[in-house]
Amino acid sequence: MGRYGYVLGGKNNSAGCFRNEIRRYNPLTDSWSTAGYLEGNATSLGRAQMFVFEIEGQIYYGAGGRWDCAPGMGFNTAYRFNPSTGTTAPIANTPFSGGVSAYCSLGGYGYVWNVWSGELWRYDPTANQWSKVCINLPAPPDIMLPYNGRIYFINTSHSDPTLRRVYEWEP
């Protein structure tokens, strides 16, 4: 985003737990810094398998869970991070809990594929609400790629090679 890259959460291999930091990468200085924290505070829980997408300069993230230091915790909370101010604010909770397999933004909306339910959800930042999108895919996507007004659902890891395909969808 802009001239920086951002990484949210992730595993801390030395401690064996998930990070709660929002990290910013500056390619001009080849350096990383802490830009903020998940849930807006340094004591928040880290998480993995969450969605992250950008809409109009804001980073939206949430859901996911912890399967490391606090096993079995699935989250349905979601947030908006403002990189300009370093502030985090809650948004509407997701209607699902736990891990997501793919996500993207397109046309001012965020799209999230919930891996556990096999459902696609759309987030509207203006209304601050989630709605289920009716779409039928034979296998959950690993990647959602927005391009030219469409979303391409890509499955690269299904055990059945005939389901490792690309599916095109126009919202």
How would you characterize this protein structure?
There is one protein chain. The protein is mostly beta strands. The chain has a single domain (5-169), classed as Neuraminidase (6 Propeller). Helices cover 0% and strands 49% of the residues. It is built from no helices and 18 strands. The protein has strands spanning 5-8, 11-12, 17-18, 21-26, 31-37, 51-55, 58-62, 65-66, 73-74, 78-82, 87-91, 100-106, 109-114, 119-124, 129-133, 143-147, 150-154, 166-169. It has a 4-stranded antiparallel beta sheet with strand order 6-7-10-11, with no helix packed on it. Strands 12-13-14-15 form a 4-stranded antiparallel beta sheet, with no helix packed on it. A 3-stranded antiparallel beta sheet has the order 1-4-5, with no helix packed on it.
CATH superfamily: Kelch-type beta propeller
Number of DSSP strand runs: 18
Topology order in helix (H) and strand (E) letters: EEEEEEEEEEEEEEEEEE
Strand content: over 45%
Q: Provide the CATH top-level class.
A: Mainly Beta
The gyration radius over C-alpha positions equals 16 Å
Structural class: mainly beta
The main pleated sheet reads as: 4 strands, antiparallel
Q: Segments where pLDDT lies below 50 for 5+ residues?
A: none
CATH topology: Neuraminidase
